[in-house]
Design goal:
This protein is of the alpha+beta class. The chain has 6 helices and 9 strands, in the order E-H-E-E-E-E-H-E-E-E-H-H-E-H-H. The protein has helices at 34-45, 96-110, 148-153, 156-159, 168-176, 181-185; strands at 25-29, 48-52, 56-60, 68-72, 89-92, 116-119, 123-129, 135-141, 164-165. Bound molecules: fe (ii) ion (FE2).
């Protein structure tokens, strides 16, 4: 598909009735494992429980009553890699500082580290697995919303739609040393990783 010249109008702008927002993600887990999964999301997202019991729980970190819910059902099986369905859920941070702060907080205080870090071009992204191997992306937009269409039209993404890997410790150090975010978010030249290097879930 060719890049579009500009951002498509919202459904509302086209006179359509569409959802107001994406509300939440619900994860299924084994009986006895709800708290374990809820705790991981509370830590990773700086969330708090809206409600929790051994069978179900809701985590919130903003003005939505829940963004992630975890539900135990009898008969739930272990995760199987490479089945159809959801690949990952992404959460966007305000800026690179917040993303790197989160990277360091999770690593230093909780031993939670990403499986894979890549500058896709449009986003700088870190991919994590929760304890059930659901994949979660923590990211920051590299380009202001109003410039996304321009970016997709300039050929850089078409040339490399995968991205360039980065080392989060190096990124964090460069940021701490005062290198401007704008510069750090720019995708460096290089060879994209093989798709088989991406974490499999
Ligand atoms: Fe994503």
């Amino acid at each position: 598909m060719n890049a579009v010249a500009k951002m498509p109008k919202t459904a509302k702008e086209r006179g359509k009735i569409a959802p107001k927002k994406l509300a939440h993600v619900v994860l299924r887990t084994k009986e006895g494992n709800v708290q374990n999964i809820l705790d991981w999301y509370k830590v990773v997202l700086e969330g708090e429980a809206m409600y929790e019991n051994p069978g179900i729980g809701f985590v919130t970190y903003d003005d939505e009553h829940h963004r992630v819910a975890v539900l135990a059902l009898p008969g739930v099986q272990d995760h199987v890699d490479m089945t159809c369905g959801l690949h990952h859920v992404a959460f966007t941070y305000e800026n690179l500082h917040d993303l790197m702060h989160t990277y360091n907080r999770l690593k230093d205080e909780h031993g939670i580290t990403p499986e894979f870090c890549i500058n896709h071009g449009p986003t700088t992204s870190m991919y994590y697995f929760d304890p059930d191997k659901n994949q979660i992306e923590l990211q920051v937009d590299n380009i202001p919303e109003e410039k996304f269409a321009e970016y997709f039209a300039n050929g850089e993404f078409t040339e490399n739609p995968i991205g360039i890997k980065f080392d989060p410790d190096e990124m964090s150090a460069r940021l701490a040393a005062g290198e401007p975010e704008e510069q750090l978010l720019k995708r460096p030249d290089g060879t994209p990783p093989d798709l088989r290097e991406f974490p499999v879930n």
